[in-house]
Amino acid sequence: MSKILSRRMGLFLLRQVLWGGAEYISELGEHSMRLRSLTVGIVLASFAFLLPPLFGQATISFAQLNGTVLDASGRTVAGATISLRDLGTNRVYNASSNGSGYYVVPNLLPGQYELTVQNAGFAKYVQTGIALTVGQTATVDVNLKVAGTTEVVNVNTEAPPVEPTKTEISQVIDTVQIQELPTNGRQFVDFALLTPGVATGRTSLQSTFTEPDVTRISFGGMRDLSNEVTVDGADYIDEGTGSQRSTPSQESVNEFRVVNNSFGSEYGRALGGIVNVVTKSGTNEYHGSVYGYLNNKALDSRSLLQTAAYDQYRRGQFGATLGGPIVKDRTFFFANYEGQRLGESPTYPFTLIGNSALGLPDNLTTINAAKAALGLPSEDLNLLKTLNNDKGFLRLDHQFNETIV
Fold it and tell me: pLDDT for 139-171, tens place per residue?
């Protein structure tokens, strides 16, 4: 739909430019200001024609449904009407089968769909339970039966997980896995480590900058600077560090696809792997959650590098989500807030705090005396390292037309 709108806008602006240019030539001596309007029009038209490639990048976050429409004898059916309805938002996508009976419905948001196929002389075909995931190209073939008396063929099944039109090796981490599997720190990118050939990247071999809110991942032993991370089709790589930016809250992520290799040209810009993320969106029903997670030293074992006197640790993560319709069947929203409060003791070397078991003396008094002589403040071992943050997420979706062709 975005491609269609941008192309139409580009054609409209180009037409205005051509008309404005002809009028400018005929009245050159009278209206010198037309030149500025013509220049602005050319710039706008050029930008409009550049929009399709920009929106084309976002297609990697959509799914696609295709297949062949056949009759009872196995012959193809041309001109069949295809309607695909999003069960969450009632958004309808329309298509038709070509002369070979083949149909394709592109640019579908991940979710549950209902497929309806109709053609003169055949019974209406309805198939529900079609679950499409991010970046999936699902194939669903339809067999129409000869029409009887107002007969409707209903099929309840899911789209096959095999994607015969793709050669990539990938895995989808869906909403159930994101919600149910435990993670330390609730960074959803950690789930990418569940896929074969993916491991945590080595910070010492990566960028000189480190971000505590980001998990660096390595595909097949390659540097994480070679990866591509997209969120809802937008590039999410930090140009300064070369790694992904601080990721959205785990609670606002719907699902994501991890592409190990052999990915298509629609991705690009990656030698390692792809992490393609899709966030949650609102539906016709209100839904939300309130959550809180607590982790402290009473629940965790102490690090071998810490002593009992300096082993403080607490991490609290909390937030809420809310999604639903603003205008039913047209405009939807999804919002999320999440906060983190983290405090932990630094790891002090034994040369500073000593270790009686190893016979190492406590040098804190000596060090503080030397610092006092130099006019420096003394060491305060009761200070905690903190990492507190608050993040928000808001997504708005609007359907401009009742049906999308």
Answer: 999 999 888 755 676 776 665 555 666 666 778
- Note the residue count of the chain: 405
> What's this model's pTM, rounded to 2 decimal places?
0.75
E strand or H helix that includes residue 34:
helix 34-58
- In this structure, is the dihedral angle defined by the CA atoms of residues 326, 283, 61 and 213, taken in order, positive or negative? positive
How many other CB atoms are found less than 10 A from the CB of residue 9?
16
Q: What is the DSSP letter of 378?
A: P
Query: What are the distances in angstroms from CA 321 to CA 19, 115, 245, 388?
Result: 50, 30, 22, 20
Cα dihedral across residues 36, 42, 44, 47: positive or negative: negative
Q: Which of 397, 124, 123 lies closest to 284, judged by CA?
A: 397
* CATH match for 169-279 among 2.80.10.50, 3.60.21.10, 2.30.40.10, 2.170.130.10: 2.170.130.10
pLDDT in tens, 346-380: 988 888 888 887 888 989 999 999 999 999 999 88
Q: What share of the chain is helix, strand, coil (3-state, %, to 5)?
A: 25, 35, 40
Separation between Cα atoms, residue 219 and residue 260, nearest integer Å: 7
